[in-house]
Design goal:
This protein is mainly alpha-helical and about 160 residues long. It is about 65% helix and about 5% strand. Helix 2 crosses helix 6 and helix 5 packs antiparallel against helix 6. The termini are far apart. The relative contact order is 0.14.
């Protein structure tokens, strides 16, 4: 698999393309499988997706992806695939992937909230097909956490500004 990618980057700097392709196939296979399973069970895809569900799922996906990729309390999930760089934002860690091949690709996925956002969004959308009430409830917990996080940051900034003034 090296020859087609030999001009892309030096071998040590080359991304793990085979692992990336595996992840892409897994994601799209899971989404296709969810749609097929929904159809087999008599659930059709909705005629349209409500804007409120898009906002809820988008907000929940944002929070879930950051919870997995950055929070101290989920470091145990990332640790086999990453190396600690240091403290990040509030209650967060900065890490980078380690190893090569699939291990490195998993590390890259686990420290990238943007990458995980796709997986979270896909899972929530599949949840809307099979268990919409439970999915909306779970997503609302994460959406509320997002609002809480922003309020905590805004409060801290206001407090710091007041103390400095």
């Amino acid at each position: 698999m090296t020859a087609p990618y030999s001009g892309y980057a030096p071998p040590r700097e080359r991304p793990p393309f085979a692992a990336y392709a595996t992840f892409a196939l897994a994601f799209h296979g899971a989404m296709a499988g969810a749609v097929a399973a929904a159809k087999r069970s008599g659930r059709d895809l909705p005629e349209h997706v409500h804007a409120r569900d898009v906002a809820l799922i988008g907000t929940a996906s944002f929070r879930l992806s950051r919870l997995i990729s950055k929070q101290k309390v989920t470091a145990f999930v990332r640790a086999p695939f990453t190396e600690l760089e240091g403290k990040g934002g509030p209650a967060q860690l900065d890490e980078h992937p380690r190893g090569s091949g699939l291990r490195r690709a998993m590390g890259e996925l686990l420290v990238c909230p943007y990458c995980l956002g796709l997986w979270a969004s896909g899972a929530f959308h599949a949840g809307l097909l099979f268990a919409p009430r439970a999915t909306r409830f779970s997503a609302s917990v994460l959406a509320a956490m997002t609002i809480s996080d922003f309020l905590q940051i805004a409060y801290k900034a206001a407090e710091d500004r007041a103390l400095a003034g």
